[in-house]
Each structure stands twice: as structure tokens, then as C-alpha cells.
Amino acid sequence: MSDYKKIVVGTDGSKSSLLAVERAAAIAGAFDATLIIGCAYYETKEDASKTLRQDSVTVLGDDPAQKNLETAASAARAAGAKNIETCIKPGTPVEALMSIVNENQADLLVVGNRGINSLTGRLLGSVPADVARQSQCDVMIVHTVS
């Protein structure tokens, strides 16, 4: 197994994403790695409406994104992560996560499985499937929804 130094996980404030944060935090704690929690947001309602994926939680504005990060960081500390950074990025969840992974040269990206088995996910793609295809680091898809 790789020695993970930087682990990225995304959150949108949902229960599902917080389960992924907790799993990533446990791994970060075990490897004494830096956990980078990211949250994507849309700057306007028009930007949000342009996305083809309507099955995901839409974070509108950087204030709600910052609140999501604060909640996720608390959950991460409780799950064992010691070195925690946060990052908000405008854009789609896939764009934001890939940007955070690349900017930080992450070793592992952790995402939940929400959307991967939905009809929309099968036809248009899902966040977990899309980041797994695009990422140049290891990707862990956590079973967060049935």
C-alpha cells in the first residue's frame, strides 16, 4: 500500500459526503497524512442550472461552502485526522475536486458513491465515476448510500 501524504475528500454538506470525510479522516490519521477537504460551489443560480446533473446537492455561494467545510473539518477531527486543510472552489464538483487534487499533488482522492448507480449517473456520468477516470492519483469510492 502506498504511503499517503496528502488526501483530498469532497463535501457538499450531505450526510453521504460526511461519511466519506470520516473515512478519509481515519485514513489520514493512520498515515499521519494531511487531509484536504474541498467543497465546490456555484457562484450563481444560472451556473448551477447549467449542470446536467440534478441528482447532486447544489451549493450556491461561498458562504454555504465555508459552513460545509467547517462541519466537515469537525467531523474529520473527531474521526482521527490531525492535519486538516480546507479549500473552496467555484465550479462543478468534478472540476473543483480535480483542481484541488492537482494543485496539492494529492496521493489519494476519497469520494462517496452517491449518483454512481442512478439512471442519470449511468447516462451522464457521476462525480465518483468521472473523478476516477480523470484522476492521476489513487481514488477510493466509499459506500455511503445504498
UniProtKB/TrEMBL annotation:
InterPro entries tied to this protein: Rossmann-like_a/b/a_fold, Universal_stress_UspA, UspA
Residue ranges constituting the UspA domain according to the UniProt record: 4-143
SUPFAM superfamilies: Adenine nucleotide alpha hydrolases-like
Transmembrane segments: none
Pfam families (alphabetical): Usp
Family, as annotated: Belongs to the universal stress protein A family.
Name listed for the protein in its UniProt record: Universal stress protein
Organism: Corynebacterium canis
